[in-house]
Amino acid sequence: MVTETKISKGFQTVVPSNIRKMFKVGPGDIVEWKTNKNNRVEVFFRKKITINDVLGMIDGPKTDAVEMKKRIQRGEKI
């Protein structure tokens, strides 16, 4: 599949909608441009990391900050 876009006077271009949907990219994501030995350019998308992505990396029991504070105030071990 070949899709074309035009470079504006400000050296900007648009990521075509079919490409955005296919790779699930949006505002805040990074576009990386890499040249290879054949004088061609490879384009990579790097997703913006959200707090939910970071929290999803941590395994362990779910915690409730309010309940933890109450237990500490009562002198209970956590």
Describe what you observe in this structure.
This protein is α+β, with helices and mostly antiparallel strands and 78 residues long. It is built from 3 helices and 2 strands; from the N terminus they run αββαα. A two-stranded antiparallel sheet has the order 1-2. The protein is elongated. The mean pLDDT is 86.
Keywords:
78 residues; 15% strand; 3 helices
Write a concise synopsis of the structure shown.
The protein has helices at about 15-25, 50-55, 65-75, and strands spanning about 30-35, 40-45. It is an alpha+beta fold and about 80 residues long.
Over the alpha carbons, how many angstroms does the gyration radius reach? 22 Å
N-to-C CA distance:
56 Å
Low-pLDDT sequence parts: none
- H/E topology pattern: HEEHH
- Structural class, please? alpha+beta
Quickly count the helices.
3
Largest sheet: 2 strands, antiparallel
Helix content: 25-40%
Main β-sheet, spatial strand arrangement: 1-2
Task: Write down the overall mean pLDDT.
Answer: 86
* Proportion of residues in β-strands: 15-25%
